[in-house]
Specification:
This protein is of the alpha/beta class. It has 23 helices and 31 strands. A hairpin with a 5-residue loop joins strand 23 and strand 24. Helix 15 packs across helix 18. It is globular and about 95 Å long.
Length: 785
């Protein structure tokens, strides 16, 4: 935050115009300023506008100084003050009060105000809805200036009730009194409502008919206790819920959603309930209890009380606390843990509309808990874990989006950029006025309805934030839908388009998040992911780059092996195992070692001759240095992966889960060939050591751990060699493989011995959800060159 102190030579009794920028709308900021002014005997007004909060104030110089200091030091918990700008103001005669003024109907400038993310129910509202006799007792839509819907209900800036979906509900007299009272915590709280004037709740059956019930919540809880599946409308979309302790209910949900193995998110009433099933240290507990309230991945303590099918073959459970009054009331009455998974058809976006819910979720849910507050935009639940003492976001969505991030030093003069991200885990990023806004998670763009949501989000963000880019940025991949949209938009709008290599964007994302200056010098980036289009037209994924924000040089990579079957190798890990074994041992050596591999039978049952001919001829078998596919191959070798994966990352997650149960920290050897340019990191020695351990009867968990530690050692040692030889100033990490907590922790530990700073992803996802952020930074840097 910066403060412009203005003219200090003004007389003691003065007037000032004070502009506050940042996340200052929808957080009780105007009531906060009003209270300060009353306390300091100042006169004037405060209002929201398209740029943030504007204060006109008159009084003693010392009192105004105290006001500005308090704005900086005492702002509401959900607020984030970025700048305070001060200028002289001539107070009109007859000024006798300090008032909260209405927002101007029109403005002459651009929208630059931020939008606060949605915040989970606060303690005061939770106590109120739990207390008999309170006006909002058991009311599922209570909120105040400290909690409630924000981004999910806003249609336009400034954040005032007429610009939100709450405009559909006229305030009753008691709510209006609270809204107008400076002493009330609902003073100018835009989502304020009560049972008499606000949104209403009801229960429907699978046929869409309303269920007669004195209390829809109690009826919904009864259905859950009977093992039924409930679709409920939450903050940013529908959830599908069932009793997490019922094997029959969880199995039914899996069968109906055709989701055989992907872990379900869970919700429990409070921290104590979560700790019955998982370990949660102080940092993890604080994350669960934070206003963002993400799903937090926690070590599974024991299975008692939970169906094993909530997270097959996993060592971590994804738990969250109730995010809304509706969830709070539901969990308190139910008493146990609930599966709380996204309400959507597989591959499609989450449902947000009541009619769509009945149409699309009718085959999954036995009943529907509905309400009549519109959702302005769909928001999935954010997902996070704590690794290396820091919160690491795996999905950037509810509770975090669209909070702005200040650009690193040297980017203040950058033009406005729109970056379009990749194909998987779609997200866009806008830059403006020395800040970047990374959108909420949009999904995988291969699905037509998700792509439609992606296009809608581009228009939505442009309108909401009054964003007019002068430059577009997209991935190099010629077949990505996001890149195709960028090409068409660039042609139609006559805008330049920056094409950014996938792994360079991953590394730039980590650099920018950590505030690496534009002139900070070159860094060595370790980029590990599934697949990304390389600048040479091949498939990359296990890379070491020497780069700055402008450009990069590929210094080292995993030894490429074919992807037999092309895209099929992404979903059938045994194909990668064949390619890896043949590269390490040749075809005869592969045949000899298959009987020793726990997963060898799946591979032996395939048409290996046909695949080998295709690889030899280069038919649908592109060479790839993918680290993700190496994980798949090792998981397949250890029988941790089915012949056909049911979700992305299934094999790698099983491998990490098994490895996390071992205390072994030895690492398998990898070979580094420095005679080639770029250098090549060869896993062949790792495969020989893995087979030796199998023959010696080493536990599978230890073998899985040794693979993780060996991979970390190989890449970190190589990166440090490159950094020393090229006078690099830092090491940066990026790519979806770094969602693996064991690998990330191993790399952080290995690199900590160096004097170089390590720039690792935290609030920006390491996976493709953070790709647009890196693209935007690179495009901005090139524009400034």
């Amino acid at each position: 935050m910066t403060i412009d102190r203005g003219d200090r030579d003004a007389p003691l009794s003065v007037g000032e115009r004070i502009r506050v920028r940042g996340l200052v709308q929808g957080v009780g900021f105007r009531p906060f300023v009003h209270a300060l002014a009353q306390r300091l005997a100042l006169l004037g007004s405060v209002h929201n506008d398209s740029e943030g909060v504007l204060i006109h104030v008159a009084g003693e110089r010392a009192a105004i100084e105290a006001l500005v200091a308090a704005i900086s030091d005492e702002a509401p918990a959900l607020a984030h003050v970025v700048t305070i700008e001060r200028a002289p103001w001539s107070a009109p005669s007859g000024l006798v009060t300090f008032a909260i003024a209405s927002s101007p109907a029109e403005h002459g400038g651009r929208n630059t105000a931020g939008v606060v993310p949605d915040a989970r129910i606060c303690a005061a509202c939770a106590a109120e809805i739990d207390t008999p006799g309170e006006r909002r007792y058991r009311y599922a839509f209570a909120s105040c200036t400290a909690c409630g819907p924000r981004f999910s209900i806003i249609d336009a800036i400034p954040y005032d009730r007429p610009n939100t979906t709450m405009r559909d509900f006229a305030l009753c007299a008691p709510c209006r009194s609270e809204y107008d009272s400076p002493a009330d915590r609902r003073f100018h709280a835009q989502p304020i409502a009560c049972p008499d004037c606000g949104p209403q709740l009801w229960l429907e059956n699978a046929a869409g008919a309303r269920v007669a019930a004195d209390d829809p919540l109690t009826a919904a809880v009864d259905a859950l206790r009977q093992g039924k599946i409930l679709a409920l409308k939450g903050l940013g979309g529908f959830h599908l819920a069932c009793d997490a302790g019922s094997e029959a209910a969880v199995d039914a949900l899996r069968a109906r959603k055709r989701r055989p193995a992907k872990p379900f998110a869970l919700m429990a009433a409070d921290l104590e309930a979560i700790r019955r099933f998982c370990r949660a240290d102080a940092q993890e507990a604080a994350l669960l209890l934070s206003p963002a309230a993400p799903i937090v991945l926690l070590p599974w303590r024991h299975h008692e009380g939970l169906a094993a099918a909530v997270a097959p073959n996993q060592s971590l459970l994804g738990f969250m606390l109730p995010t809304t009054p509706l969830h709070h009331l539901l969990l308190n009455e139910f008493g146990g843990a609930l599966v709380m998974t996204s309400g959507n058809v597989s591959g499609e976006p989450q449902v947000i509309d009541n009619a769509d819910a009945q149409r699309k979720l009718g085959g999954f849910a036995d009943c529907f808990l509905m309400h009549d507050r519109r959702i302005a935009r769909r928001l999935d639940d954010s997902v996070a874990r704590v690794v290396g003492g820091e919160t690491r976001l795996l999905r950037h969505a509810r509770g975090y989006a669209p909070a702005p991030r200040t650009l690193p030093p040297g980017f203040a003069a950058a033009p406005p950029v729109l970056a379009l991200g990749g194909e998987m885990k779609g997200a866009i990023c806008l830059t403006r006025n020395d800040e970047a806004l990374l959108s909420h998670h949009l999904g995988d763009l291969e699905e037509p309805l998700t792509y439609r949501e992606f296009v809608r989000a581009i228009d939505d963000y442009a309108q909401l934030f009054d964003h007019r880019p002068s430059l577009l940025a997209a991935d190099l991949h010629p077949a990505y839908r996001s890149s195709a949209w960028a090409e068409q938009a660039a042609a139609e709008r006559a805008l330049p388009l920056a094409r950014v290599q996938h792994h360079h964007a991953h590394i730039a994302s980590a650099m920018a998040e950590r505030g690496w200056p534009r002139d900070g010098g070159r860094v060595v980036g370790i980029a590990l992911d599934g697949i990304g289009y390389g600048s040479d037209g091949t498939v990359w994924g296990g890379e070491i780059l020497l780069c700055d924000y402008m450009d990069f040089t590929r210094m080292a990579h995993l030894k490429p092996v074919p992807l037999p079957g092309g895209a099929r190798a992404v979903t059938q890990p045994w194909r990668n195992l064949l390619a890896q074994l043949d590269a390490a041992f040749g075809t005869e050596g592969t045949a000899a070692c298959l009987p020793a591999l726990p997963g060898g039978a799946i591979l032996a049952a395939q048409q290996l001759g046909v695949l080998r001919q295709a690889m030899a001829r280069g038919i649908n078998s592109p060479p790839s240095s993918s680290c993700g596919r190496l994980f798949d191959a090792v998981a397949a070798a250890l029988a941790l992966a089915p012949a056909q994966l049911s979700f992305e990352g299934e094999a790698a997650m099983a491998l990490e889960a098994l490895a996390s149960g071992s205390a072994d920290t030895r690492g398998y050897p990898f070979a580094l060939d420095t005679a080639t340019t770029p250098w090549s990191i060869d896993p062949a020695p790792m495969w020989r050591a893995l087979l030796d351990d199998l023959a010696a009867g080493v536990p599978i968990a230890a073998i899985a751990a040794r693979f993780h530690f060996g991979l970390a050692d190989a890449f970190c040692d190589c990166a440090l060699k490159i950094a020393k030889a090229n006078d690099a100033q830092a090491i940066a990490l990026g790519g979806g493989v770094f969602q693996n907590g064991l690998l990330l922790q191993a790399c952080l530990a290995r690199l900590s011995a160096s004097s170089l700073p390590v720039l690792s992803p935290a609030q920006i996802p390491a996976n493709d959800g953070g790709l647009a952020y890196g693209q935007a930074i690179i495009a901005a840097a090139r524009a400034l060159a």
